[in-house]
Each structure stands twice: as structure tokens, then as C-alpha cells.
Inverse folding.
């Protein structure tokens, strides 16, 4: 076998004439297609071309020396591109290399042993054959759309030609990933091989292809009707028109990448590969240089920083959590228990009422049933996970726990009592946490003998959907407790943000004035529809009044009272929010709030809601310019976010932005609340706040931090940079 080069990928040619192209870059835990790797790959492909012509190389096996295959292109290199021309040229370089692989006159196989994303999947598509391992981490995908771009090294062109237009759109427009079984059903791979013998089996597959000297059919096995629909111009037009409509409905047109993908496919399907690649490159250039792409790449970097962090400075070993308990078997408790069991952790769910325990177990079971319906897990796997959850009225087994999440009723006295009882029964070093959304972690800690082992672990509802966890550090919380909760949050698939204790912590404190301003707008005669429409057209996933319903009118009322007590007049609850809190309306969970609901789904604004609000709103609606509604809602969040930073609740502007994106759905295409404020500049934010302060009073008074930033010509990300974690 020829001796390999130290550079990645390196080339080994065995005695059977098989060229092994092995990606194994030193100093990285996963293979990334950096500029250096791509230059080296170009040299390797040229060497293979020469060897194939001479008859020395008879087949090529692209494989990885790591536990994953290739995780994609270098995002840092993408972020450095400044113009559409530069972006298109970069795309063409990658396309030319992959086209050379596709045109090799010998069989080529991508042996996908683990994660295969972006440029890695595009490399696999350029090969004649693709094989994937049945290892749990082996997944394929083209997530470029999540960065505001498209697969530009041939992925947009080759995928629909391989698996069909409809299946390709499902992957291209969403960035979804698929495991081996799904990839095989789609025709994306030729076979799924056992992880234990993957390398040898992949090599045997290639040797068989060489020996037969015939091309094995690849791609999707499509029905006659599907071929008629996808392979004719009228059929493709119908498919693409439907896809565009769905994208607009889902994104409101705020994200250009999925629309650009549809444009490229509309122009390129039925044309030559070379022509299609040129459409792809031009579109890539436009997208890469766009503000939306830069914002989404910024969000990607924030998420990666959170994923790689520990939540503390310095080296701290978190406690390994193999068994935990949840106190309180309500919807939150049941959701937390299900999430932990889904990730292989044994959970004890305790409540003081048998019917509550039974309800919590039923809720957990329902979530597992939904996971099986969506093919996230098999029925057997769901049963095994459900077996990890036990319910009890007693503290039996608490002496062996690693962590406890308290999720009982939001009353300080009850929480302090329950936590003190629990602390006496758990082992030394067991981390106690509270899932409170508004109450003081430090005040709860006063009831404990070991406050160092206590902190907040605030999940958002619904637990199985919302990605954020606020890890709340109390004044006595130890680094080990914080690191343990941070590591557990990552294990549960969540995005953890460490915040300091304070009323409402980070997300709810910023949401408070936003929701309250919606109430003030109602007082002035704005309609529910106009207020919520202004927010959704800005990019929020739902309007503030719809959000009040979703949170629960009773819970929103309690949170508002806590914030008012803490911060005084500027947080005084608006009259309409007080009025609706005094009715029997609960929001979506009670099927009636600002909106009417059926089976939890909004059916439109309740026409009787204005009557229910009584004198809190005028008898007639009056138009308020949408621009004013939007400005007032967003400025309220910016102003409070600046106070959150100034009060030391959050350490950096990036922490605020990631928390708001993951906890409220603040539009990622804007890069984050404070990144958006920086684009406007704090000076302009202060000017707009002063305008509204003149008309509406002290709740619009600019914070002292905003005034300092404006006068010193600084931005949030300059004044509060991200810390190394």
C-alpha cells in the first residue's frame, strides 16, 4: 500500500488498486472542508485521475478516520466572503472539484460512517455510490438553508436528480437530516451497513463493483405517477409553485434562501448539469453576501459557543447524572421527566397527589407516542424509555439521586418547604434545582443547608419543543452545580444560557414590557389583530397577545405582578392585561383567551374579548400605524435588555440574543435583539425612545446603559463581548 501523506485527506492505494481517500485532519474532532483540505483534495483527485488512466487505480473509497464523516464546509471561510462575485467564484471552485470526482472513469464510493453534512453530503452526491453505517450518529443532510445560503457545490443540482424533486425539496428547504434507514428509502444511499464491520463491508462493496464492471442503478425508485409529475415541465411547475406557497406561509418571506433554491430548480431542472451548476453558483453568491446570511451565521456561532461551553470559567468536573427526580407531576414535571428518559436517564416523578402522578405519567407516555408516530423512535424504544420513569407519593430512592428538578406550584413558601425536605434526603453533592420562572433563587436557597448545591434550571413550555434552558446562578451556587446543570442541559439537547438571579431572570424580564406594551396599545384602541400582525410581520413566531394565551393568562398575570413589585411604575400592568386576568379566561389551555381555541389550535380572535375587557379598552377600535406598533413593542424589549446587561443578569450581548432567539423565537434572520439594536445604533434607539417617552411617559425612558452607549458611540457587542466559556 502506498504511504500516506500527513495532510488531510491523505491517499492510500492498496494492492487491489483501490484508492482510499481518508479525511482525518489533525487537531480537529471532526472533519471540516477548510480551504487547505479542499486544495489537498484537488491534488488527490488529480493523482487519482492519472492513476485511473494508467490502470493503476480501479476504484475510489472516500472515508473518514474519525467517528464522523465530514461535518461540512468551513463556516468561518463563508463568513469572510464579502461580495456576490466572490461568493459565486468560491462556489464554482468547489463545483469544479466535485465535478472532477463525478467524472472519474472508475467506481467511486462515499463510505459514510457518521455525521455527514453540507459539503460532506455534496461530496457523497458527486460519488457514483453512497453507503452509510447503522451507527446512531450516522446522519446525512444539507443544512445550508439554516445559514441563509444553499448547497452550492452541486448539492442543489444533484439531489433532485438522484432522489426526485419532491423528496429533494423536503431536505433542501428545511435543512432536515436523515438517518441510514430514511436515506435508503429515499434512494440517497445504496445500502446501510453494520457499524461493527462498516469499513470492510464498504471495501467489499467497491471490490464487487470493480469486478462486475457494470453500473449499479442508483437513486429513488419512483412510481410512474411521480415520474410523470417530476420529470415534465407542467408537473415540476405545480410542485415548485406549491413549495413556494408553503415557504411563504412558514417564513413570511423573511428568509431568501429557500425561495432562491426554488428559483434555481425552476431554471435548472431539465438543463445540463453544467448550466444548472452555474445557476447554483450565481444564487450562492447573492445569498452568501446577504445581511440575512450574516445574521444566521452569527446565530450559528452563538449556538456553537453554547454547545462547546461549560457554563463556568476554568476547569470544573460536572457531576454525572444517571438518576434524577422531578418534584411536581404537572405538565412541566411530566415534560421534564419524559425528556430525561428520552435521553436515557432514570427519573423519579414525585407529587403529593396520586391523580397528579398518574396524569404526569400519562403526559410523558403521550409524548413518547407522538415520537413514535413521527418515527423519532420505535415502539420498543419508547416502551424502554417509559420504563425509566417511575411515579411516587414518597421520597423513596432519593438517597441515590444525582440531581433534582423542583417544578411545584409557583409559591415561594411551598418551594422552600419542598426543597428543604428534599435536601435532607438526597446525598451530599446531589444538585438541587428549581424550574421557577420568576421567583428568587437566592430566597429559596435561604431555606437550604447546602446552598452551594442549588441553582435554577428553568425550562420553557412545552419542554419537548422549546430549546432554551436558563441556568440560574444564585449568590451561593457552586461552579460544580452550574457546570452539572449546564452539561445536563446539553445532554438533553437544549441550549443553556447562564444568568444571575433576578426577577424574571433574562427572558421573562424582557418579555414583560413587550407583553405589557401590547396591553397599552389595546388601551389606545388598537385591535388584537393589528398588534399581533405587526409582531409577526416583524418576524416573531406569534404576536404578544397570542403569546399571553399560550403562556397562560394566569401565569402571565403572576409574572407581571412579580415584575411590577420588583421594578415599580415602568412595569405596572396595563389595564387590559389586569382586566383579562380577572376573568375566567385562561388562554389556549382553557380554549379561550384573546383568541378562541379548538383542541389547542387558535381559531381566530374572540369577538367577545373587547366586551370581556370592559372599561379597560375603548368601545371602538381605532387604527394605529403598524410601524408605531412594531417600534413600540421592539423598543420595549431593547430597553429592558440593556437593563438586564447593566444589572449583571447576563454576561454578554450574545447571551441575551441567543436566549431571546431560543426562548421567544425572536427572528434569527435579524441576528438577535441586541445585534439588531447595534445595526440601528444605540443613538437611534435612544432618539426613538425619547419620542415615545414624550407621548407615553416614563416606561419609554431610555436606560442609563443606552444613554452611555449613545454618548460614547459604542454598540452592545463592543461593550459586552462574548466571554470564553
Amino acid at each position: 500500500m502506498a504511504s500516506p501523506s500527513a495532510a488531510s485527506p491523505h491517499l492510500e492505494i492498496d494492492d487491489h488498486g483501490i484508492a482510499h481517500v481518508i479525511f482525518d485532519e489533525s487537531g480537529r474532532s471532526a472533519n471540516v472542508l477548510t480551504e487547505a483540505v479542499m486544495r489537498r483534495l484537488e491534488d488527490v483527485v488529480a493523482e487519482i485521475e492519472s492513476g485511473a488512466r494508467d490502470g493503476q487505480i480501479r476504484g475510489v473509497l472516500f472515508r473518514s478516520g474519525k467517528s464522523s464523516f465530514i461535518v461540512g464546509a468551513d463556516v468561518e471561510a463563508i463568513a469572510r466572503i464579502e461580495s456576490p462575485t466572490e461568493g459565486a467564484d468560491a462556489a464554482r471552485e468547489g463545483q469544479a472539484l466535485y465535478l472532477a470526482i463525478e467524472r472519474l472513469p472508475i467506481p467511486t464510493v462515499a463510505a459514510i460512517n457518521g455525521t455527514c453534512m453540507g459539503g460532506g453530503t455534496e461530496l457523497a452526491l458527486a460519488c457514483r455510490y453512497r453507503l452509510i453505517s447503522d451507527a446512531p450518529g450516522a446522519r446525512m443532510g444539507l443544512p445550508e438553508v439554516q445559514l441563509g445560503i444553499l448547497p452550492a457545490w452541486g448539492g442543489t443540482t444533484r439531489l433532485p436528480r438522484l432522489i426526485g424533486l419532491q423528496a429533494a425539496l423536503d431536505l433542501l428547504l428545511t435543512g432536515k437530516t436523515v438517518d441510514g434507514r430514511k436515506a435508503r428509502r429515499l434512494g440517497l444511499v445504496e445500502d446501510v451497513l453494520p457499524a461493527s464491520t462498516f469499513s470492510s463491508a464498504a471495501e467489499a462493496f467497491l471490490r464487487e463493483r470493480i469486478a462486475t464492471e457494470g453500473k449499479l442503478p442508483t437513486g429513488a425508485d419512483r412510481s410512474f405517477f411521480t415520474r410523470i409529475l417530476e420529470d415534465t415541465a407542467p408537473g415540476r411547475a405545480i410542485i415548485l409553485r406549491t413549495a413556494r406557497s408553503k415557504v411563504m406561509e412558514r417564513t413570511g418571506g423573511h428568509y431568501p434562501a429557500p425561495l432562491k433554491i426554488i428559483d434555481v430548480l425552476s431554471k435548472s431542472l431539465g438543463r445540463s448539469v453544467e448550466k444548472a451548476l452555474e445557476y447554483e453558483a450565481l444564487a450562492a453568491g447573492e445569498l452568501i453576501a446577504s445581511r440575512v446570511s450574516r445574521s444566521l451565521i452569527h446565530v450559528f456561532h452563538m449556538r456553537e459557543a453554547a454547545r462547546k461551553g461549560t457554563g463556568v470559567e476554568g476547569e470544573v468536573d460536572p457531576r454525572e447524572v444517571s438518576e434524577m427526580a422531578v418534584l411536581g407531576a404537572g405538565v412541566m414535571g411530566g415534560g421534564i421527566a419524559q425528556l430525561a428518559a428520552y435521553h436515557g436517564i432514570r427519573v423519579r416523578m414525585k407529587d403529593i397527589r396520586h391523580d397528579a402522578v398518574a396524569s404526569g405519567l400519562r403526559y410523558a407516555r403521550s409524548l413518547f407516542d407522538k415520537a413514535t408516530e413521527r418515527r423519532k423512535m420505535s415502539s420498543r424504544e419508547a416502551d424502554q424509555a417509559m420504563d425509566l420513569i417511575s411515579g411516587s407519593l414518597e421520597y423513596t430512592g432519593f438517597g441515590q439521586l444525582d440531581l433534582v428538578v423542583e417544578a411545584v406550584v409557583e409559591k415561594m413558601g411551598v418551594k422552600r418547604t419542598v426543597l428543604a425536605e428534599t435536601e435532607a434526603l438526597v446525598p451530599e453533592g446531589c444538585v438541587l434545582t428549581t424550574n421557577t420562572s420568576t421567583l428568587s433563587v437566592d430566597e429559596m436557597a435561604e431555606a437550604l443547608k447546602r446552598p452551594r448545591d442549588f441553582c435554577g434550571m428553568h425550562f420553557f413550555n412545552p419542554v419537548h419543543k422549546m430549546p432554551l434552558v436558563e441556568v440560574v446562578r444564585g449568590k451561593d451556587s457552586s461552579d460544580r452545580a452550574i457546570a452539572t446543570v449546564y452539561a445536563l442541559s446539553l445532554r438533553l439537547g437544549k441550549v443553556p444560557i447562564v444568568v444571575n438571579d433576578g426577577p424574571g431572570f433574562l427572558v421573562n424580564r424582557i418579555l414583560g414590557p413587550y407583553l405589557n406594551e401590547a396591553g397599552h396599545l389595546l388601551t389606545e384602541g388598537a385591535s388584537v389583530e393589528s398588534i399581533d400582525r405587526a409582531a409577526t410581520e416583524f418576524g416573531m413566531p406569534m404576536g404578544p397577545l397570542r403569546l399571553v394565551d399560550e403562556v397562560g393568562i394566569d401565569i402571565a398575570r403572576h409574572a407581571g405582578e412579580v415584575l411590577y413589585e420588583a421594578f415599580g411604575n415602568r412595569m405596572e400592568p396595563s389595564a387590559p392585561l389586569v382586566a383579562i386576568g380577572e376573568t375566567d379566561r385562561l388562554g389556549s389551555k382553557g380554549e379561550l383567551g384573546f383568541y378562541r381555541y379548538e383542541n389547542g389550535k387558535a381559531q381566530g380572535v374572540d369577538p367577545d374579548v373587547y366586551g370581556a375587557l370592559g372599561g379597560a379598552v375603548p368601545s371602538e377600535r381605532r387604527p394605529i400605524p403598524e410601524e408605531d406598533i412594531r417600534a413600540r413593542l421592539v423598543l420595549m424589549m431593547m430597553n429592558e435588555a440593556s437593563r438586564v446587561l447593566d444589572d449583571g443578569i447576563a454576561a454578554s450581548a450574545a447571551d441575551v440574543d441567543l436566549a431571546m432567539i431560543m426562548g421567544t423565537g425572536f427572528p434569527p434572520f435579524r441576528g438577535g435583539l441586541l445585534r439588531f439594536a447595534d445595526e440601528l445604533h444605540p443613538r437611534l434607539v435612544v432618539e426613538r425612545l425619547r419620542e415615545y417617552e414624550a407621548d407615553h411617559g416614563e416606561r419609554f425612558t431610555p436606560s442609563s446603559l443606552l444613554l452611555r452607549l449613545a454618548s460614547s458611540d459604542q454598540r452592545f457587542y463592543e461593550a459586552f463581548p462574548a466571554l470564553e466559556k
